[in-house]
Amino acid sequence: MADISLSGVPHHVDGIQASYMAQVQRRRLYGGLTLLIFVVLMVSGFNVADDRNAGGFWDGLHQIGDYPADVLSEAWEKRADLPALIAKYFPALVETINIAAVSTLIGAISGLFLSLLGTRGLAKWPRLIPLFRRISDIMRAVPEIVIALVLIFVLGGGPVPAMIAIAIHTAGALAKMFSEVSENTDLKAVEGLASTGATWSQRMLLGVLPQVAPNYVSYTLLRFEINIRASAILGFVGAGGLGYELRNAMAWGPGRFDEAAAIFILLFGTIVFFDQVSSRYRNRLTEGQGQ
Q1: How distant, in Å, are the alpha carbons of 139, 156, 214 from that of 144?
Q2: Of 65, 78, 80, 262, which is most buried by a Cβ count within 10 Å?
Q3: Are 247 and 70 spatial neighbours (Cβ–Cβ below 8 Å)?
């Protein structure tokens, strides 16, 4: 009997190996088909977009460095004027930073309430959790530039439409991030406060926020970096700030490329500065090294 059972083991192992190799081959086949479909879609999509372009991609590819070269050459010729131009456009930079700061503040406060009202175990009205989550989904699904274009049509150009558009998108994005952090909160403190008769606001303020504050602030600083870039981009559609001045300088063409270079220097320096400062404080918060 022992000999019979042992003689059947190799066949059983061979069967397992054959089954495994068949699964590997099927996975490779599915992976190859998926890659092939992806490549076909990318190529066809590129060809459709290239056909609908005013100019062909391949025809203009050799000119990709012409505009940066013209900007740099003119800026170098007029390099003595760059400090004065940087000072000239500094107020527009301040406006851009103000747009980002105010929109981040409003969006963070709104996102905080949306996240707490949409988190299981913390929500004041549990039945309305899906409603608050869908609201945050809609707010972050619509791009800032679309909201800004609608608001510019209603309110006119300026920093206010940009601030409102960025604040709406920021509230939806931070609500999602804050909600993921809040779901990992230890509910013992909340339950203890509830047993003493604390209100919902008191439970959130004393039981939840002390646990999640470092991550909340970290995400808010990260969003502030993103909003500086967004506020500059929205300037291209007439929402004010440094982006508006950059659009005018670029649209004017040769003769004002030195102004475009000065604006690029201001924008690049600002983004790098805030990125470094924000990264430093975010690392301190998340690693528990805050003073």
Answers
A1: 9, 16, 27
A2: 262
A3: no
> Residue 232: which of 250, 220, 214 has the closest Cα?
250
CA 159/CA 239 separation, integer angstroms: 5
Nearest to 270 by CA among 89, 71, 109: 89
Residues 6+ apart with CB under 8 A from 219: 174, 177, 178, 181
CA distances from 287 to 182, 290, 291 (A): 18, 8, 12
Backbone angle region of 53, left / alpha / beta, with phi > 0 → left and psi within -120 to 50 → alpha? beta
| Structure-token match 């609201």, residue found | 135
pLDDT digits (tens, 9 = 90+) for 161-196: 889 999 999 999 999 999 888 888 888 888 888 888
Q: What is the pLDDT of residue 1?
A: 44
Q: Is 156 helix (H, G, I), strand (E, B) or coil?
A: coil
| Closest by CA position to 264, among listed 81, 86, 70 | 86
What's the CATH architecture for 72-290? Orthogonal Bundle (1.10)
pLDDT digit string, tens, across residues 13-33: 777 777 878 888 888 888 889
For the purposes of burial, counting CB atoms within 10 Å of the CB of 98, is it exposed (0-12), middle (13-18) or buried (19 or more)? middle
Domain boundaries, the chain: 2-49, 72-290
Cα 48 to chain centroid, rounded: 28
